[in-house]
Design a protein that fits this description.
The chain is an alpha/beta fold. The chain has 2 domains: 99 residues, Urease, subunit C, domain 1, CATH 2.30.40; 290 residues, Alpha-Beta Barrel (TIM Barrel), CATH 3.20.20.140. The protein has 15 helices and 16 strands. The strands form 3 sheets. Strands 1, 2, 3, 4, 5, 14, 15 and 16 form an 8-stranded mixed β-sheet that branches. Helix 4 crosses helix 5. The longest helix has 18 residues. The chain binds N-(iminomethyl)-L-glutamic acid and fe (iii) ion (FE). The site of N-(iminomethyl)-L-glutamic acid has 14 residues, from helix 3.
Length: 407
């Protein structure tokens, strides 16, 4: 098995509860697909056959994790962007048959091949900035065949890029037009037909639901989560994005891995998240694009030690954003996260939001060797600059993403 020894590194292990877990003059040994040793240069092992990478004080971090995306979809919503700039709200556009439903129409009309091809540049943009694990949701098919089509594309992207992709079934993302006025019947279809079939085909790692005035109510959302759990699947939920329907408390009470968005989360419900261990996934891209002004209850989340993750929420409507570095900057600038919280949000806490923190998310002995070498010497640089990509090299599962070791 091949070995790689990184020397003279500035290393942000992200393994502690706060800060970067920063080490100067660090070394790290990769053996096969795992991290075998992390420590100070002076104590480093001296394996015979390891390839040696001299980091020259540059920064090593865990591979970045984008734990909430809707990366596979048909069409675009540039027209809606213009309408919103002219004053229409996201909810108004949804109510008049645009929004998510317009992407559903375009996704249904697209072949699997076209969905795959159109997702390529989006995924390449994320990978170029050091993403090694990605979550992709369904939710623009809204019938069995089309939800399966989306999840197959997600599986194919994982294969194509030798990337870890977690596939989340979001059949209850919006009410499809053919079920207008029959939301409960649609939830029955989701629970009894769509989700079981997607699971039989091995395409589901977790189940999500959108609980909101423009989507499903609390009881409908809970039905979806309950049927997913009866099938042994982990759950998560889009909640409190535009209003407070109590979705976060309900999902946390059911042991959800994460609750996502949270701008309208009531500070009184933060304790319920803390008690449950659910991760709060914040999506500053959607906050920014929708020109939201209501901030998530950051201080309460921080005080009650709810783990905070960040994600692009890459989707054609509320967050056409394909840069996790930009999201880190937005989280600092718009939400006042610290750069250390931002980096934790796209590494260890993002791993938690996917239930993968035993394997990935920090630079620790025994974890997967998903490692990024950055052309910076301080981790705050990753959040501080906009529009510069300092990613020098990416190792995924012990293999360099591009042939040849970095200089
Ligand atoms: O996470 N909130 C619901 N779903 C997506 C938006 C999807 C869309 O607008 O197409 C989100 O923001
Ligand atoms: Fe989303």
């Amino acid at each position: 098995m091949s070995q790689t020894l990184f020397i003279n590194a500035t290393l942000a292990s992200m393994q502690d509860e706060s800060g970067y877990g920063l080490r100067q003059q660090a070394a790290l040994l990769v053996d096969g697909d795992k991290i075998a040793w992390v420590g100070n240069m002076a104590e480093r092992p001296t394996p015979d056959a390891a390839a040696v990478i001299d980091c020259r004080q540059r920064l090593l971090t865990p591979g970045l994790i984008d734990c909430h995306t809707h990366l596979v979809y048909g069409g675009d919503r540039a027209d809606e962007f213009e309408l919103r700039l002219e004053g229409a709200s996201y909810a108004e556009i949804a109510a008049s048959g645009g929004g998510i439903v317009s992407t559903v129409n375009a996704t249904r009309a697209a072949s699997e091949e076209l969905l795959f091809t159109e997702a390529l540049p989006r995924i390449r943009a994320l990978l170029a900035e050091g993403v090694t694990t990605l979550e992709i949701k369904s939710g623009y098919g809204l019938d069995s065949d089309n939800e399966i089509k989306m999840l197959r594309v997600a599986a194919r992207l994982a294969n194509e890029f030798k990337l870890r992709v977690q596939k989340t079934f979001l059949g209850a993302h919006a009410l499809p037009p053919e079920y207008q006025g029959r939301a409960d019947d649609y939830i029955t279809l989701v629970c009894e037909e769509m989700l079981p079939r997607a699971q039989r085909e091995g395409l589901v790692d977790a189940v999500d639901v959108f609980i909101e005035s423009i989507a499903f109510d609390l009881a409908q959302g809970e039905r979806v989560l309950a049927c997913a759990q009866a099938m042994g699947l982990p759950v998560k939920a889009h909640v409190e994005q535009l209003s407070d329907l109590g979705g976060a408390a309900m999902a946390a009470g059911r042991g959800a891995l994460s609750v996502d968005h949270l701008e309208y989360l009531n500070a009184a419900d933060v304790g319920k998240l803390a008690a449950s261990g659910a991760v709060a996934v914040l999506l500053p891209g959607a906050y920014y694009v929708l020109r939201e002004t209501q901030l998530p209850p950051i201080a309460a989340l921080r005080e009650q030690r709810v783990p905070i993750a960040l994600a692009t929420d890459a989707n054609p409507g509320s967050s056409p954003v394909h840069s996790l570095l930009l999201i880190m900057n937005m989280a600092c600038t718009l939400f006042r996260l610290t750069p250390a919280e931002a980096l934790r949000g796209v590494t260890l806490n993002a791993a938690r939001a996917l239930g993968l923190d035993n394997d990935i998310g920090s630079l620790e002995t025994g974890k997967q060797a998903d490692i990024v070498l950055w052309d910076v010497t301080r981790p705050s640089m990753l959040s501080y600059r906009l529009g510069v990509n300092p990613c020098a090299a990416v190792m995924q599962g012990g293999q360099w993403r591009h042939p040849g070791a970095p200089l």
